[in-house]
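Supplementary Note 3. Input sequence used for the single-chain structure prediction.
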Amino acid sequence: FKRRGFIPNYFDKFIFAPAAIPWLTIGTFSLISALSISVGREEYGVDNAMISSRYTTTSILLIISLIYLFGLFLQQQQKYLSIYKIFAVVMTGIMMVNSVYVVASVKSSFPYMESRKECLEIINYLEDSEFIQESQDSCLVLMNGKTWLVREGAEIMAKLGWREIPQNLEFITETKQTYGYLDYPQTTENTLIINKDETISLGGWAIRPDRNKQPNLVLLSSGENQYFFANAIVNLESNDIAKVLKSKLYSRARWKVKFSAKSLPVGETVIKAWVYNSDKQEFIKLNDEVKVRVEDG
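The predicted structure, written as discrete structure tokens, is reproduced below.
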């Protein structure tokens, strides 16, 4: 039976073949998921999606469905079978190369992901400074650009008993072992003078000599405050540290951070660097401090 004006479509039999329906459904699901994720997570950029497995996993379903759909189409066209085999091999190769790239990206971004867990545990000790609320290096911003939402979520989880937020943590200023240094800029007796509208860069290195798992965050405080106005991710290359301490565990122990002087009080203060010991629920001070005088205007 042929309708008037209807031109037989070469693909009709394939399109409505029952065998194709599951693969069409899987492919459509992958496209809809990608679209919804793109719209919902646009503000966090492409990098956020690339290193998050929950975003990239569904894209694999589209590739798989296309390979099978192409195979079903060529079942009746044996002359194209060799083309399909080449296509399948190429697509498989692309998936493998992409997987290697993603694994490498995740590995390099692992300290950032781990820092979120540590950040959430000490959230009550993070000040509402300009850095913590807005900087791309802020451990709160890494979780969600709307830092107030992270704080509210942490409070709700604590009330429901889903997560314990430690209280009354100790601040340890002296230890027998070395946990690291704040060594940039080089510590001197001279006070660093900076205008409130300028930025300041600090750096150093941090380790956990008492365990294999190394710190993910260095936390900065000013004066005698027992809360932190900024943080740094510990993930920079430090082969010199690893060589001196004779351990590959310390091959990425350096950290560096830049922040606005607006995060500091006007006047003279001292900046200290700390690491968090989750085992004993305490903050341990790194060696050396930086004296700063912030001038207003």
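Residues 36 and 140 are 24 Å apart (CA to CA). Residues 1-8, 10-16 have pLDDT under 50 and may be disordered.
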